[in-house]
Amino acid sequence: MITKNEVSKVYDTVLSTPGMSELVKIDLKISRKNVLLLSHVISKGLDPKTEDSGLLAGISEQGISDLKNLSEECLQKAGLVELNQKLITLSGSL
Question: What is the pLDDT of residue 29?
Fold first, then answer.
């Protein structure tokens, strides 16, 4: 059986291969619903309370920042920043 440490080393190796830091342009058209869901998935995945032994286990602070910025940019382009904040406030009060 493969251990969490070994899985983390494999992911770290894959992420450090040549070309993985290169920027790519992605032309993506998705519904506002999916933008909102993607933003919540990113937030949930980056939550420090969530234990992850996979790809996100060894993510750097810069990687976390980049993902948060991507999420915010998607919400801004879809015009969903305010709605997202209200949903976060609503779910926090439950």
Answer: 93
